[in-house]
Write a structure and sequence with these properties.
Largest sheet: 4 strands, mixed
Shape: globular
Number of helices: 3
Strand order of the largest sheet: 2-1-4-3
Order of helices and strands: EEHHEEH
Helix content: 10-25%
Oligomer: single chain
Radius of gyration: 13 Å
Length: 79
């Protein structure tokens, strides 16, 4: 399956990878709630692709999350 990571803030592509099987734990998807999964991950089984919304480095900095102490404070982030 090909996994495409796109920035949820600016829409720019972040990365793409191809894997034989998606391991939820390996990719950090196991820590998401059902609602977060629905919002962040879109799977197209016919095309064999997955779209994952995340944040690019520029938007992390723009939003003020660049300091390790700020990330995750009261929020759950996939990245």
């Amino acid at each position: 399956m090909k996994i495409y990571y796109t920035c949820d803030c600016c829409g720019e592509p972040i990365d793409e990878i191809e894997v034989e099987e998606v391991d939820d734990t390996k990719f950090g998807f196991d820590c998401l709630t059902a609602k977060e999964r629905q919002d962040i991950i879109k799977v197209d089984t016919v095309a064999g692709t997955m779209q994952v919304q995340s944040l690019c480095d520029k938007c992390i900095e723009y939003l003020g999350f660049q300091d390790a102490g700020d990330v995750g404070r009261g929020h759950r982030f996939l990245h």
